[in-house]
Specification:
The N and C termini lie far apart (56 Å). This protein folds into two domains: 1-45, Homeodomain-like (Arc Repressor Mutant, subunit A, Orthogonal Bundle); 55-194, Tetracycline Repressor, domain 2. The chain has ten helices and no strands. 77% of the residues lie in helices and 0% in strands. It is an all-alpha fold.
């Protein structure tokens, strides 16, 4: 059984994802959660703190999913590709509340610099996990020699770009995610494995 605080957070994640920050009100959240309005202020203080709590909750779950995907890999290349697949799969999972992360990322319009800094630190853990897989692959020979930090930025840009195209626009090609994974695979594969 979900506590009232958990019900409020669940409703907030749903509404922030569906409606965005500006259109989500405490009244809407309390109605969806079936919890008294006063408990929102009691548990979360204000809308900004609730927005941050919702984003951090989704991000923590996202990091667990990514880590699990990497842990199932037998080498670094497989770990990096599992990471990419898990990232994209999470983004279209209807239960993930992914749009909260899109709206609550450090690159969006966070209200305070403290919130932005906290989200930046947590999002950096996502980048670090991918970086670990690339180093692992270079060491085990499953990934060609690359500039790791730059490749992490390129792969993350690819994932963010294809995700935004699929999730936020009406013109995504039907196999966009599969093509992105294939592109990442070609970019990481050692040249001798391509011959």
């Amino acid at each position: 059984m979900m506590t009232k605080k958990e019900a409020l957070l669940k409703a907030a994640k749903e509404l922030f994802g569906e409606c965005g920050y500006a259109e989500t009100t405490f009244k809407k959240i309390s109605e969806r959660a079936g919890v008294a309005l006063g408990l929102l202020t009691h548990h979360y203080g204000n809308k900004e703190k609730l927005f941050l709590a919702a984003g951090l909750d989704v991000l923590e779950h996202f990091l667990v999913v990514l880590q699990d995907a990497c842990d199932r890999a037998s080498n670094g290349r497989e770990g990096a590709l599992n990471f990419c697949r898990a990232y994209l799969d999470f983004s279209i999972d209807p239960d993930s509340n992914w749009l909260v992360l899109v709206r609550c990322s450090p690159y969006s319009d966070m209200k305070t610099s403290a919130d932005r800094e906290l989200m930046f630190k947590k999002f950096n853990e996502v980048h670090q996990l991918l970086e670990q897989q690339l180093w692992r692959g270079i060491e085990d020979g499953s990934i060609r020699e690359i500039l790791v930090k730059e490749t992490v930025q390129i792969l993350m840009s690819l994932l963010v770009g294809v995700n935004r195209t699929r999730v936020l626009t009406p013109y995504a090609p039907p196999h966009l995610y599969r093509e992105a994974i294939d592109f990442a695979s070609r970019a990481l594969t050692p040249c001798n494995a391509c011959e």
